Amino acid sequence: MDREIERFLRRLSFVAIAIASTILILLFLQTPDTCIPSHAPLKPHLRFPKSTCDFATRVHAPLHKKNERLWSSRDWNSKVESFSSAVFLPLRRLGILANNSKVLCVSAGAGHEVAALSGSGVEDVTGVELVESPPLVQRADPHNLPFFDGAFDLAFSARLDEALFPARFAAEMERTVRRGGSCVVAVAECGDDEVREVVDLFRKSRFVSSRNVTLVGMRMTSIVMRTNKSS
User: Fold this and answer.
1) Which in 56, 98, 105, 164 has the greatest CB count within 10 A?
2) CA-CA distance, 81 to 70, in Å (whole number)?
């Protein structure tokens, strides 16, 4: 009797193992049902789902739409106006900047200064930065600018004091400006001694003027220099 029970239990265990193995194989082979609709794109993994039923593709706005939102924001327009009133309008009064000037903005960030110049009527403005922000700013190394000597009438930067190699940064600004053109920088607010130190970085230029300004909410000093007409 005991042997019969033992044989029965052994057979039962073999059957249970066989059923469990069959179920596991079916689970591996069967494609699980999800909540993804039939009209879904071929790559539903564009956004990592929170659950198997969380299906929603990420909508990628085109560049011009992103720029429209950015350029219509109050913060953007406030910064653009700050560059216009604090830096570029005084340069027009000095006769350094005109609508037909060719201007280079070095380390232009997102392009506020480029937008300010273009918006004021300057026709030829180029902005460069290590990270591009099209269409206002193209990618270039401020320490190795990809422009011919004397290509611009005016070079401007509000980030000289952030440069890794300030002397090289200043030399590249000077190199790209024609003889008799201008280099203008805005640095953290400073006194006469610090202004002279900045001017000394521009070995082929002479000091014209400096003034303290409030630029994008920060106290800064705008320094204007003229490149020498002869080497």
Assistant:
1) 105
2) 15
